[in-house]
Design goal:
3 helices, 7 strands, single chain, 7-stranded antiparallel β-sheet, Alpha-D-Glucose-1,6-Bisphosphate, Chain A, domain 4
Length: 152
Amino acid sequence: MGNVESSVLVDAFVPRVFSFLWPEKVGAWYASANGTRVEVVSAGGMGPGARLRISGESRFGPRAYEAEVLEWEPPNAFAWRVVRGAPPGEVGLRCEAEGKRTRVTMRHRYAVRPPLLGRFLDRWLVRPRVEAVDREAVENLKALAEGRRGCP
């Protein structure tokens, strides 16, 4: 499993930052260039065990996968894991107050296959790409929460 962590300090209080982690707003900052959309598809609404459909575009065309919510603790934590339609992986976000600001930490665990070749591919191809996408995501989240960018 590969692991990547990205963190950013946001000039906004925790509840404001977390408001952008609700599924209907995630696409505004997480892989937003791909038109990412996140929707709750299970009955009962948002919470641990809820199913999400995450869809958007990739360089190979439309993509979609199903994920399960692992952690949902407003206004501090949101995490999901892929259950179908994409390689295994988990994404977790945590919001922690630092005075009048919020530290957002994104942790991304992902599968790399096949094992031996996967280590090489991870080091030179996969990890740099995941790091770039995640860094862009937390910077987009920061811009939205600070009011420097509009949210649909």
